[in-house]
Write a structure and sequence with these properties.
two-stranded parallel sheet; two-stranded antiparallel ribbon
């Protein structure tokens, strides 16, 4: 397979928002419109994995595509890394913080608050806190 150079004209559009700033690239083929050109376009738009799948679907050897084809003077992998910014999705785990304020000044109320805060490790399991056994109360509201 010959080394094919993908020459692309990139039109850059900047979108600014209050939280993030992103750059979107539009890939336009200049010159010969070949399979390798399409593969480079896919690498820039959708990533190297998508381009490799497309190469396989089109009957192009994936290894040769990655090693012998050049996209704007770069390997398809480097081209993809440069122009395809894949957003990293981070799972946000909601956390709940409880603040315990005694409703009265009894010893059992204080025992519930101390137990849930981890200030005491031994407690009377028959104690009821907010209508539930103390061990369930601790499990549900432990800080």
């Amino acid at each position: 397979m010959k080394t094919t150079t993908f020459i692309a004209a990139m039109l850059v559009t900047l979108f600014a928002s209050t939280a993030t700033q992103a750059t979107n690239y539009v890939f336009v083929a200049k010159g010969a419109d070949t399979i390798n050109t399409e593969l480079c376009k896919t690498a820039g738009e959708s990533g190297i994995a998508a381009a490799t799948r497309q190469a396989t679907d089109l009957g192009v050897n994936a290894y040769e595509f990655k090693q012998k084809v050049t996209c704007n003077g770069m390997t398809p992998s480097k081209f993809s890394k440069k122009y395809n910014r894949v957003a990293v999705i981070q799972e946000v785990v909601p956390t709940t913080h409880y603040e315990f304020v005694p409703s009265d000044k009894t010893m059992k109320t204080n025992a519930c608050i101390q137990a849930v805060k981890g200030e005491v490790t031994k407690f009377d399991r028959s104690t009821i806190c907010n209508g539930m056994p103390i061990h369930r109360f601790i499990r549900k509201y432990k800080a």
